[in-house]
Amino acid sequence: MTIDADIALVGGGGAASLILASLTPGPRVAVVDPVHKRGQDRTWAFWGTPGTFLDPLLSASWNAVDVVTPASHRTLDLQPLRYAMLRSAPLYDLADQNPSAVRVTAPAHTLADDGNRVLVSAPDGTPLVRASWVLDSRPRPPARPGRVNWLQHFRGWWLESDTPVFEPGRAVLMDFRTPQPARGVSFGYVLPVSDRFALVEYTEFSPSTLTGEAYDTALRGYAATLGLDLTALRVREVEDGVIPMTDGVFETRPSPRVIRIGTAGGATRPSTGFTFTAMVRQASRIAAEVAAGRPPLPGPAYPARHLWMDAVQLRALDRGLVDGVAFFERLFERNPPDRVLRFLDGATSPAEELALMSSTPLLPMTRAAFGDAAARFRRGV
Fold this sequence. Notes:
The chain is α/β, with parallel strands linked by helices. The chain contains 9 helices and 17 strands.
């Protein structure tokens, strides 16, 4: 039997769950996903202003974080912002409380948009849902490939100890004392939930992923740098992830009534791979539009000028024009922390962005900007 709905969410992960949690009861919503997402399958870390609907769901938050390089150790006061950790289980649970939503536990394949309704069908052609609008969060490559195609890829260990070993009031945002790849930049970070339980993670920005053993070797090395005795700690959970970092263009509206959200809808910041805050903005905007009786359009994830700056930064890193560690160290050294973090979330003014650009290595970044312009011209021709 085909379900009729006002909105169909194709994919039931973080982007869809944020929308379900943000929508007020009323619109008929169908969630189409072969798996009903539950439990702890991922962790999101993000910064923002306290006082949102996510606050009761947080595992931890910090008003200050550390940025560490081989030459310096800087503690950043984030106020009025804060750095926060959200694990997936409470968000999935909140999404399940939407009384207007039904779950269709099946894979979606085709989205047939006739201009008035969209028919969502299974791979075998079975009709699943007929909806006025479809919000599709399934991963897909850019519609136009990027000139630079990197990845944010990582592995994290949830470490547990019988005795206090972590400082719950101190989070490490970026620790660049990890061995740096030949092409790219790496860092570790630490997000403590208590003095005995923390997420310790190794992350790379680079063109390709590593083997599982290489991630584990990097994590063992980073744990040693932190002075952690792994023989006295238990690895309770392992988290892996790969997120695109590309100046490619994502097709956010492939047909009149199909809108892509999450990474597929451009929510991933090209220069860093950060995604969560943009997904929250998308969900809030969609909920506001639906409440006002308008189409559920999320709007652009980031200003166009930010995407241009991201393309220039990616080119500078990819061509080896700047040292990645020195680049990020200089950004935090020469700017207020909240300005850097708001920029990474796409929430700064043009005046603030000029100040940020002036704090980067001007000659290499100018070369990257001209190179990007030339590449755009060649592609246009």
